[in-house]
Write a structure and sequence with these properties.
Layout lengths: L2 H24 L6 E5 L7 E2 L5 E2 L1 H13 L3 E5 L2 H10 L3 E7 L8 E17 L18 E4 L3 H8 L8 E4 L2 H9 L5 E5 H10 L7 E17 L4 H16 L2 H7 L9
Parallel strand pairs: 1-4, 1-5, 7-8, 7-9
Antiparallel strand pairs: 2-3, 5-10, 6-9, 6-10
């Protein structure tokens, strides 16, 4: 076996042993974790056989495998995911923007990916002109309720109902944009093409006009969880970064950009 490969395997083994030792100290795993997923490819979605798939799902599966943790996986709207993670212990959200207002509410694992949000319009609407973000206040913007993009717009002086039209999920938001009910939509450029295609729309019919924000995505563990559980997951995550697992999983998902 080549020396380099031996070193990688040794690092991985150390990570597994450290995680297992931490787990024994923390006690039994009878409750496991509740993993909450939003249907947003390429991060998390259901494949043709109905199984969870995507970049963030693969990270989560490897993380829990190393920690020998069982899980119950559920798909839901972002609003329900976020509210549940705020109040229920042992809940893991596989992909969440790390915002200042959320900082104290979660334990953070990552960063897992870069997140760049733009305001998109239909190419058939050249009358919708947004040379600056401030100019977007002249139009109705589709957003997802409680999403980081909505929070960014609210912080910049945009108002609910007046400027922003809230939707529970990407399916509803895209439906409004393509039907012309909203002139703009706030979309993460990483998920835009995959999400649009998933819901049966043509990505080539829309275009980004102005950048809204840039942030990093993380896995988030509910703050009401035992801190020993977070320490256990954190050690496994650090091992995944050291041995190249995170980079290898990202390489299988061309839409995903790792943070700088």
């Amino acid at each position: 076996m080549p020396a380099r490969r031996s070193l990688v395997l040794s690092v991985a083994a150390v990570g597994l042993l450290a995680c297992s030792a931490t787990g024994r100290a923390a006690g039994a795993d009878s409750d496991g974790l509740i993993v909450l997923l939003e249907p947003v490819p390429p991060f998390s979605y259901q494949d043709a056989d109905g199984r969870p798939a995507g970049y963030a799902v693969e990270l989560m599966q490897e993380l829990l495998r190393r920690c020998r943790l069982k899980s119950t996986i559920e798909f839901n709207s972002w609003t329900r995911i976020y509210q549940r993670a705020l109040i229920q212990p042992r809940v893991l959200v596989v992909s969440m923007a790390r915002l200042e207002e959320r900082e104290a509410s979660f334990f953070w694992l990552g960063p897992t990916a870069a997140r760049r949000v733009y305001l998109y319009r239909l190419k058939s609407r050249p009358d919708v002109r947004v040379p600056t973000l401030e100019a977007a206040k002249a139009y109705k913007i589709a957003v997802i309720r409680d999403d980081a993009a909505e929070r960014d717009l609210l912080a910049r002086g945009f108002e609910l109902d007046n400027h922003l039209d809230r939707s529970p999920d990407h399916a509803a938001m895209l439906r409004k944009l393509y039907a012309g009910r909203n002139e703009l939509a706030a979309l993460n450029s990483t998920v835009a093409a995959a999400s649009v295609a998933q819901f049966g729309y043509d990505f080539n019919l829309i275009e980004p006009l102005v950048k809204l924000s840039e942030a990093r995505l993380y896995m988030a563990l509910s703050r009401s969880s035992d801190e020993a559980l977070y320490d256990r997951l954190q050690r496994a995550w650090e091992g995944m970064k050291r041995d190249g697992t995170v980079a290898a999983i990202a390489a299988r998902h061309p839409y995903v950009s790792l943070p700088d």
